[in-house]
Amino acid sequence: MQPAHQKFYAPINFLLGEPLKQTMRILYASILVFGASFMAFAGSTWSVGKANIQGRPVIYKFIDATPPASTRQTLPWLTIISWKYDDSENNGMPSSETNRKMIELEDTLEKLSDNNNAYLEVYSATGNNIKEFAFYIADRKTFMANLNEVLRNRPSYPIDITFYEDGDWSDLAKLHHNFGLAR
Beta strand 119-127 with 56-63: parallel, antiparallel or unpaired? Predict the structure, then answer.
């Protein structure tokens, strides 16, 4: 499996130990990038971290813990919704207008999280001219039908959707490893 976002994995600059001023800048940037609302599943917590990829910041929001095996077994498909943009003047981060539209999309995607445990968002990444939302899902046709339904009355978004069979959840495991959360 070759995830489209594999290029994002690199040594991580942890927020811990950084001066408070830098941490506050990261927190502020995260709020701007991700908006005030975050998708979550019952009992989960989310973390925000930063990586530098090709000299540019990439901000991640991800679930802290790997879901139980019973959940993972029912959601074998890694699904990446990606939005490529060109904001080379903004160090690879989206412009205010692009970011506003991305937050609208994220708010719309939150409606997917209420659908009978058929999918689970596990992380998003923003930076280096791409925004990605990563889900693990049970069924591609069901996911697409529900995605099209929640997007029906929304503006058109420049997104691509890619599916990968990842029954062992190696993509999330790799992200956890890179942020020092490997269990």
Answer: antiparallel
Number of independent structural domains in the chain: 1
1 found inside a domain: no
**Total-model pTM:** 0.76
**183 assigned to some structural domain:** no
- How does residue 130 score in pLDDT terms, banded at 50, 70 and 90? very high
Range of the domain at 73: 6-178
**38: amino acid identity, one letter:** F
